[in-house]
Amino acid sequence: MALLPILCYPDPRLHKVAQPVQVVDARVHALIDDMLETMYEASGIGLAATQIDVHERLVVIDTSEERNQPIVLINPEITWMGDERVKGEEGCLSVPGIYDGVERATAVKVAALDRSGQHRTLEAEGMLAICIQHELDHLMGKVFVEYLSPLKQGRIKTKMVKAQKAER
Ligand code: NI
């Protein structure tokens, strides 16, 4: 297993649209293991392949307190979204230190392949439902800050670029 570098906003590679995973093989299993390790190490609740510069429809999630209930979604598609919406504070491993309110559906159903390549459907609500929507956005090349006002986005971009320069 290996820790993978996470792309940071405003890296243009975060806006690439992911392609479906063709076959769930040893390569994909290794990628899943590395993504889980990277997500846990960074104390994140979700990580999309896009964030590690792999542009395939693959996400890992764990919203459990104990950090021992990993969910793997391969080629996920939201098949149903509840009408009720809620504005909650979100953050992202690709936008470290930034948290802001985003409105999302409170419940979703998602169809995906699991780690063994089996078709699954998952009904989610609360934090898991929000996390699924956030991660699936990544696969479409969308980062949560793009829901914020242009003014806020500009400020965040400036802050991120500054922080990345300071790191070098
Ligand atoms: Ni994110």
Q: Which class of secondary structure composition applies to the elements? A: alpha+beta
Each distinct ligand: nickel (II) ion
Count, helices:
3
Q: Report the portion of residues in β strands.
A: 25-35%
Radius of gyration: 15 Å
Q: Strand arrangement, largest sheet? A: 1-2-3-6-7
Can you walk me through this structure?
With 168 residues, the chain is of the alpha+beta class. Helices cover 29% and strands 26% of the residues. It is built from three helices and seven strands. The strands form two sheets. Strands 1-2-3-6-7 form a five-stranded antiparallel beta sheet. Strands 4-5 form a two-stranded antiparallel ribbon. It is globular. The two termini are 26 Å apart. Nickel (II) ion binds next to helix 2.
